Amino acid sequence: MIDFSVQKTGLEHNIQKARENHIIIPTIAQMQHPETIPGKIQDQLKNVGLWDINPLNLFRITWKNEAKEFGGLYQAVPNYIEFPSELTGVPCRIVAMVGKWFPTGCHKVGASFGCLAPRLVTGQFDATYHKAVWPSTGNYCRGGAFNSKLLACQSVAILPAEMSKERFEWLRTIAGEVIATPGCESNVKEIFDKTNELKQDPQYMIFNQFEEMGNPLWHYNVTGNALADVFEAIKRPGDHFAGACFTSGSAGTLSTGDRLKDLYPTLKLAVGEALQCPTILENGFGGHRIEGIGDKHIPWIHNVKNTDMAIAIDDEDSQRVLRFFNSAEGKKYMLEELKLDPEFVEKLSWLGISGIANLMCCIKMAKYYEFTEHDIVGTVLTDSAVMYGSRIEELNAEGEYRERDAAVDYNLHLAGLKTDSMMELNYVQRKRVHNLKYYTWVEQQGKTSEELNALWYDTEGTWDAVHKQAAELDEMINEFNEATGLLKNL
């Protein structure tokens, strides 16, 4: 459960700081239904860029933003891409919501909001004293630093040194401090070690996405309902929501599946990971290149009991398809050989590396369960190729990309995906994966065995209860906004 106990002094400081910086905080309900955002705020957003350091961009933390870099408002159905069978090689419909149209170009700005907002509106985080520390494998610290800036808070971003240079370059313009820890996505322990070092100083408050319940609270209520909106908008007679796939990362996005299972009980939920670090499949370890997901541990906030399948993606597949989607020869192949729509082909730049991995998980799931044209599988595109320009340059440096390379990459690394390196999880296998949390969270990070068991056995008292806390959070946000006086004086 999220702690909503109020620290009066910190709350007073935060209210005053918000008043001075003209900060109005959106509710979770407004992120679900942005049409309810006050008209005067919407009018002001018409003059604000998507990435601008402007508190109004807090009201763009929603899947329903218009696909505009400047002045965009909202639409009834979230931005999504439907991948045609000519590309995927499976008859079922695969759809993915697009993270590119969030501020920072990534949906992690929502997850970080879900973690920061409860402590801000309770005064547990004092914006005049604390520094918000955002441990991450890439995008979460970007979202956290951005939200901190919008909310007039100091921030510290932590991410592995081997992440793309685009992330570091942008972070240095936003975060108060940027810390690069050793290794790649898989080196999550090194991130935890740095946060444990920092929290010895009381000024540093850690917002650890891998354990903060505000992360699944946001995704369950916002992402889960948004993906359901997409399904309801595109379904045809006889269609049903058959499956959803999300690479693990912090596991926050997997709580989207918890919401979808509430709405569509027969839906299958899969978690993806890198084949080069098969922690879920094989209790394995290793390094990989699928940026944005972290491994060698099971996140505290992963509701493993609700996960039906584990799927491993070869990082070579994701790299080759990244180049295929973003090269002239790859686009030519899709237009001339696959006969794909030119507008759709251009939208493939909306997939970052982890988004490509999510697409591959959907394809593998569809092949495993033999889904038909009446089955729909959903996922999300965390970020876009904008974050990986340097990675594409590295791939291009390997040599000229020719028509033959495009044909090989499509047929081998996308259409040729098989049902290897995946596992349908029964009760015992889920319990095995859940128990892996012990080694990170009890032995290293100070949790107790009783807390670990509660995550498994006390579903209604943990996961269900956290999901329902959105209403309480919204009530406190409304009280905070009322105390600043800004909303009523718009």
Briefly say what this structure is.
By secondary structure, the protein is of the alpha/beta class. It is 45% helix and 12% strand.
Percent strand equals 5-15%
Shape: globular
Number of strands: 11
Q: Name the structural class.
A: alpha/beta
How far apart the termini lie comes to 34 Å
How many separate helices? 21
**Low-confidence runs of at least 5 consecutive residues:** none
Question: Average pLDDT across residues?
Answer: 93
Helix content: 40-55%
Computed CA radius of gyration, to the nearest angstrom: 21 Å
Question: What features would you describe in this structure?
Answer:
α5 (108-122) crosses α21 (463-484). It is built from 21 helices and eleven strands. It is an alpha/beta fold and 490 residues long. The radius of gyration is 21 Å and the shape is globular. The protein has a seven-stranded mixed sheet with strand order 1-2-10-7-8-9-11, sandwiched between helices. A four-stranded parallel sheet has the order 5-4-3-6, sandwiched between helices.
